[in-house]
Amino acid sequence: MEDIPKPQRLRCSVQNYNWGRTGEESTVAVLFSRNNPIDPEKPYAEFWIGTHPSGPSSLLSLGSSDSRPVLLKSWILENPSAVLGDKVSEKWHGDLPFLFKVLSVAKALSIQAHPDKELAKVLHEMNPSVYKDSNHKPEMAIALTEFKALCGFVGIEELKDVLTSVPEIRDMIGDEHIGKYMSIKETDPYDETKVVLQSIYTKLMSTSEEAVSKSVSKLKHRLNIESKVRMLTEKEELALQLEQQYPNDIGVISSFFFNFVKLIPGEALHIGANEPHAYISGECVECMATSDNVVRAGLTPKYKDVQTLCSMLAYKQGYPEILLGTPLNNNVSRYIPPFDEFEVDHISLSPGESVSCPAVLGPSIFVVVTGEGSIQMCCATDEDKITVGDVYFVPAKNEIKLTSGGTGETQVYRAGVNSRLFNFVPAKSEETDLQ
């Protein structure tokens, strides 16, 4: 009989970026506190689950307090085919292909994009201290609370309205560039509209710091006066909010170029290579390819690489796709982005309810976000108690059963390799088991 590696409970890492929520106000801190002390004065921004060297997970069940912890990546490398499954191990060279996170956002993140694989390799070779790996970073965010973000360029007609109604932008870009954009039609080929949009966005982002500071000051002064005689638009309110967080920053002005997305809990947003975005506020579960490559150009004290960002963007226009999740049964919804590396299941159990998660051909990671209950491995009779912050790594071909405790609802999220890699696309099911 095949020897299948057993599931392992993990100790995970956090990132204390200054945009995170503080102390116990942060879901990230609450999850982290399951196995670690937290500082109530520090921001807790991201809870990392995976093998990336910037925040690696380790196995709680192996090693001891007086010995060096066993890293998840090291454990996988001892027998990658058995842990990851043959197909996953071969495709991703023995490494876990996804990085699973929870984010607690109190303050806007940078205006950014993630490079495709080809550009990621070049950036890593040129500047490894900033671009820390050579992988691409497609990602998906599933809202835990109301979650606000900027994502992708607005449509052609909306951007025309921006160019004519925001005088500070007109002054920064100039009449010649604006005139070229105003002549664009919805029916024009993408390649043609891309060239014009790239020219005006690059002109905006390349404005000198002194000129940006003056434009942001003018915008703030104008909107504060106009707010006394009319109701400001959501984008105008957002610009004032961003100015408070990042005074004199080009991101305040460039926010008018992007779609303002507001997700309710359960809605998801996926972001591919070279798509501009910035998370504004809220808490979410996030999954991505195993990478930390970010090209930034605004709303950040970190290194800004404006030239690279402006040259790499796809410049697609229109509102992004919002995923609602495909119900697999009464307890499980699956979010399937157009990327091979990952998918995410949301498992919701009322008190006393159970769900079986059958063996799959790739690895899975389970994180308990709310509630408590138990987890039963494979055909074992024993159960492990689980509570908020518990994280389990489940190797390929392991079946597990989750049961909610006797009080409130239990919410668990599972990340795994995209089912389409195994030629499996889920259909809606009324069965109790996860199909």
UniProtKB/TrEMBL annotation:
The protein's GO terms of the molecular function aspect are: mannose-6-phosphate isomerase activity; zinc ion binding
**Active-site residues per Swiss-Prot or TrEMBL entry:** 296
List of residues binding Zn(2+) = 112, 114, 139, 277
Co-factor: note:
Binds 1 zinc ion per subunit.
Q: Which UniProt keywords apply?
A: Isomerase, Metal-binding, Zinc
Give every Phosphomannose isomerase type I helical insertion domain span: 177-257
Descriptive protein name: mannose-6-phosphate isomerase
| Native organism | Dioscorea cayennensis subsp. rotundata (White Guinea yam)
Q: Gene of origin? A: LOC120280867
